[in-house]
Specification:
Elements: H1 3-13, E1 21-25, E2 28-35, E3 39-46, E4 68-70, E5 80-81, E6 96-97, E7 104-110, E8 118-124, H2 142-148, E9 151-155, H3 182-197, E10 203-213, H4 215-225, E11 235-239, E12 246-247, H5 248-265, H6 272-282, H7 284-293, H8 296-300, E13 312-313, H9 324-327, E14 336-341, H10 345-348, H11 358-366, H12 373-376, H13 382-407, E15 414-419, H14 428-432, H15 438-444, H16 464-484, H17 499-502, E16 505-507
Parallel strand pairs: 2-4, 8-9, 8-10, 10-11, 11-14, 12-13, 14-15, 15-16
Antiparallel strand pairs: 1-2, 2-3, 3-7, 5-6, 7-9
């Protein structure tokens, strides 16, 4: 063999920066790739059959994996209207993006082999349950996997109208198909996949920690409250989200209204009254075919509710309505970390007062230019912006405190934090402060400066030392929680007080 061919052979098959990394599990070979921070990634792995065609609005079906899966690219974004959390260009904001074929997960793991199975961190992205994706650069798992010696799993799940639409024409008598709880069922299916396969990736199927922020935290609550998720996880981290479950009758009423909107939008009916007559006239089979034939873009074009109904009190997936199950201790009791930032309302309540469109605001967040507060806030809102957003922040914090208090009698392993870091550049410091989602960026560890993202504006050379020091400090606690179920084991940082015993939080 000529020397240059032999050298190329060695580089391709031996050198760690070339070639692929493989995992074999239950008849499937997963072909991953080497990634930064000394990790390996396996991206875009299907955990359920594509929910398309007759499977639209049905519970996820177990997927039959191919014998070889090239898991080296992030999966499709779930169908949604483009926004600053969809990981799409600003030019797409307000238009249909993504795909219904999106039930995939991603895995990162440390490249260094270990004789001990690593804890599994199962990340559920946020986005009001109508937007967002695991593909967001802020949710890349390489840093977290390395820093916490853990297996990092991120997951996509159905959003918006694709995740919760209940109409009599679609019912088939199956309690799961007819539940309306497709978000929770998607996540349960992903957790089942993890339980079956993660050991081959070096993970411990008996030490899975579910985690999420905002709507991701709402969905963690869904898993905590669902008896179908029992024994699929061993701890939870929930940042700035509230438990909720809506009566099934309300979701059906909303779905009926959305159907009428569809019929009017495409000209099948002149108005709502005409749509009602049409539905009654043609019968359920015709309506079912009509709904299943609709393109994702058509479904995304109809009006959306500010508060999505992704959690439905159906008696099976989620037996209780709203906070009822929490108040009586009917939930999967595992060690919990609950947290929030001190300025949660700055974006959530402030958005209607922003001067630029969402697309232009996203561009401003990422272009590195200097702006004044008046460039961001509408002139008529400048005098009231601070008071409104402060009130919203306090209201949310008080509500979350009340929920945490209601958990204490039933759970002796609760830890709570408040995130106070707000050393971002001007004018963002004055507008957003310690904004919604900033805490998760820190404990996930990604200060993204080379790609557009909703948090890129926050990083500067002047705050680099401070943010990296806080990231490292938080990692000590979170790593301990992952490995031991207690954030105080194995390090010498100040003890994180037990909220269960003392009712106290730690401040970051």
């Amino acid at each position: 063999m000529p020397k240059f061919i032999y050298a190329a052979f060695l580089l391709l098959f031996i050198h760690p920066s070339f070639g692929n990394t493989d995992v074999y599990s239950e008849g499937t070979s997963f072909i991953g790739k080497n990634t930064k921070y000394g990790t390996e990634a396996f991206l875009g792995i299907p955990y359920a059959q594509p929910p398309i065609g007759n499977l639209r609005w049905k519970a996820p079906r177990k997927v039959r994996l191919a014998t070889r899966i090239k898991a080296q690219s992030l999966p499709p974004v779930c169908a949604q209207v483009g926004n600053m959390f969809s990981n799409t260009a600003p030019e797409t904001f307000g238009t249909s993006v993504g795909s219904e074929d999106c039930l995939y997960l991603n895995i990162w793991r440390p490249k260094v082999e270990s004789n001990v199975k690593r804890p599994v961190f199962f990340w559920v992205h946020g986005g009001s349950n109508t937007k967002g994706t695991a593909n967001d650069p802020n949710y890349d798992g390489a840093y977290f996997a390395q820093a916490n010696d853990a297996i990092y799993v991120s997951v996509n799940y159905r959003l918006g109208l694709f995740a919760s639409f209940l109409h009599s024409s679609l019912e088939n008598g199956d309690s799961l198909d007819d539940s309306g709880n497709l978000v929770t069922l998607d996540l349960i299916e992903a957790l089942k996949w993890v339980r079956s396969h993660i050991e081959q990736f070096g993970g411990d199927p008996d030490n899975v920690i579910i985690a999420g922020q905002s709507a991701g935290c709402m969905n963690v609550w869904g898993l905590l409250q669902s008896p179908l998720a029992k024994n699929l996880f061993n701890g939870a981290i929930c940042s700035a989200g509230l438990p909720n479950a809506y009566p099934k009758i309300l979701v059906k009423e909303r779905s009926e209204g959305l159907l009428y909107d569809l019929l009017v939008a495409d000209g099948t009916a002149k108005d709502t009254a005409g749509a009602k007559l049409y539905v009654k006239k043609v019968g359920p089979q015709t309506i079912r075919k009509y709904l299943l034939a609709k393109k994702p873009s058509e479904l995304l074009s109809i009006p959306r509710f500010v508060v999505p109904t992704q959690h439905v009190s159906d008696g099976v997936v989620l037996p209780y309505s709203g906070l009822a199950g929490i108040l009586v201790g009917r939930y999967n009791r595992v060690p919990l970390i609950l947290g929030s930032t001190v300025d949660e309302g700055s974006y959530l309540a402030g958005a209607p007062m922003f001067k630029p469109s969402e697309a232009n605001l996203f561009r401003m967040m990422n272009d590195g230019r200097h702006y004044s507060k008046g460039d961001i806030i509408k002139p008529e809102s400048l005098s009231k912006f601070d008071s409104i957003t402060r009130t919203a922040s306090k209201t949310l914090l008080i509500t979350m405190e009340g929920i945490a208090q209601s958990l204490r009698p039933y759970n002796k392993s609760i830890y709570k934090y408040e995130f106070t870091w707000k050393e971002t550049p001007s004018p963002w410091r004055d507008i957003f402060g310690a904004f919604h989602g900033l805490d998760a960026v820190f404990y996930l560890g990604n200060f993204v400066e080379d790609k557009p993202s909703f948090g890129r504006f926050a990083w500067s050379s002047s705050n680099k030392q401070s943010r990296e020091a806080l990231r490292e400090k938080m990692s000590l606690y979170f790593k301990s929680f992952l490995h031991h179920g207690n954030p105080n084991t194995g390090h010498e940082e100040k003890e994180w007080p037990s909220y269960s015993e003392q009712g106290k939080s730690i401040k970051f």
